[in-house]
Amino acid sequence: MSGFVDLHCHLLPGVDDGARSLEDALEMARALVSLGFSTVAPSPHARPEYAPVDVVEARLGELGDALARERIPLTLGRNAENVLDEAFLRGLGTPAARMLGAGRYVLVELPYTAPVPALPDILFRIRTKGIVPLIAHPERCLEFERKGRAEEAVRAGALLQLDVGALTGRYGGAAKKLSRAFLDAGLYAVAATDLHGPVGAREWVGRAMEELDRRAGERAFARLLRDTPARLLAGESLESDQD
User: CA angle at residue 67 from 63 to 70, to 5 degrees?
Assistant: First the structure.
């Protein structure tokens, strides 16, 4: 099985805490291709301390040229990992918004160690703009340790994204336990690597993908890593899905 689509990956060199150089990015890309990925929408952190949009766009073009030059068969899409703050919310629906792919969806992150009591209201504000939030790695966020909070977010119209490494304990015991519970409950819409660097990438991502396949089954595995991510990137609606 191949043709996987990674919607959370820090592949662009020198723009955030991901790939440090073009060489790092190319090594990461080779690892992803070897694991069956054909498309990546690099998701640099959209924070003031990291590279602005014009630099991100330039690096995206440079990386695309390098992939072609090195004959690495990986297609790139547009994306960003956005912080759920007032500046982000004000920017939605404007040219300043850093959207996922065709623009119907947006990748957002919550704090790892702080509660977000206003989450339902924030999700409502995003949805009223006709945009669907894709919440990055909920299993790693304190807010989703609250019983029923993940289900509540999904009912509010959000999609949840699994960091596959959580299934094998890469982010600790709590994230491992939550990721398996959310997976078993069918709460995730997509799975992604959240890859930040090349060291050991092929090995740890490969093990995590094997664990996802084992726990979820072939059909859900394909849906989480290939089918739904491709649809989100293309801006297609998921509302007609029955499962």
Answer: 135
Query: Measured between alpha carbons, how far is 164 from 137 in angstroms, rounded to an integer?
Result: 9
Residue with tokens 């390098």: 66
Residue type at 88 in one-letter notation: F
> Between the CA of residue 213 and those of 1, 96, 223, 224, what are the distances in Å?
11, 38, 11, 10
More confident residue, 241 or 219: 219
Q: How many CB atoms lie within 10 A of CB 90?
A: 11
- To which H or E segment does residue 152 belong? helix 149-155
| Separation of alpha carbons 53 and 32, rounded Å | 25
**Per-position DSSP letters for 96-135, written without gaps between them:** T---BTTTTEEEEE--SSS--TTHHHHHHHHHTTT-EEEE
pLDDT in tens, 39-94: 999 999 999 999 999 999 999 999 999 999 999 999 999 999 999 999 999 999 99
Rg (CA), the chain: 17
**Domains, the chain, ordered by start:** 4-234 (3.20.20.140)
Separation CA 131–CA 180 (nearest Å): 28
d(CA 52, CA 198): 23
User: Do 130 and 103 contact (CB within 8 A), yes or no?
Assistant: no
